Amino acid sequence: MKAIIIAKSAVFLLAVFGGILPVFGVESQTGRDARSIPITINVIIDGSADLSGVMVEVRSWISDNIIDSLLQNGDTLNMWSAGNKSRVLYSATLTNENEKENIKRILTSLPAQGETADFSGALTESKTRSISKINYTALIKASPAAFSPALSRDSADLMRFSRIEEFRGWRVMVVGMDIASRVRQAVSAYLSGA
Predict the structure, then answer these.
(1) Would you list the DSSP string of 59-100?
(2) pTM for the full model?
(3) Measured in whole angstroms, how far is the alpha carbon of residue 65 from the centre of its chain?
(4) 76-82 β-sheet, strand order
(5) Calpha distance 142→169 (Å, rounded)
(6) CA proximity to 72, closest of 30, 107, 111
(7) Can you tell me the mean pLDDT for 121-132?
(8) What average pLDDT does the structure give for the chain?
(9) What is the DSSP letter of 19?
(10) Residue 143 and which of 45, 59, 130, 194 are 20 to 30 A apart at CA?
(11) At what angle do helices 180-191 and 2-17 cross, to 10 degrees?
(12) How far is the CA of 163 from the CAs of 114, 177, 190, in angstroms?
């Protein structure tokens, strides 16, 4: 019985992360991502007034963990401010390293206004802008409150395949976009004996 549970867990993890680990898990000697497959990176930042209290930390995290570490030439970056309505801050395919400084300048002028964060609007739009087979999507909420009230019923399913990092006064949720179909395929293959 224990062996069956372990086998099912292994199949599930392989389905969920099988396409992601080979891409993100490889680091070169410089510590940078050494992948050769371009990805789409979606960053959706809380644009409500809550952002003003944690703006420096949020900008620093995005710069260190996404722009300087993950983003490389050939990747597409889509960045939104999710205030009362979602608004595109940046959307382009990176063609040279100098563009990263421009992206960081855009981060210095993040709007922090409005009462709510429209994550659902940005998530809906992100599906149309995702041109790669592999998508990295990070939602940044500028308050310690839960994400679920900020997501519509259509987007709430993202919580099933997510990782949340909590910081003092804010949090990041990295989600696996369109990963549910891969899980269903793996379970189906496992149950059919393939």
Answers:
(1) HHHHIIIIITTT--TT-EEEEEEESSSEEEEEEEE--STTHH
(2) 0.71
(3) 11
(4) 86-93, 76-82, 40-46, 135-141, 170-175, 162-167
(5) 7
(6) 30
(7) 78
(8) 75
(9) T
(10) 130
(11) 140
(12) 26, 12, 25
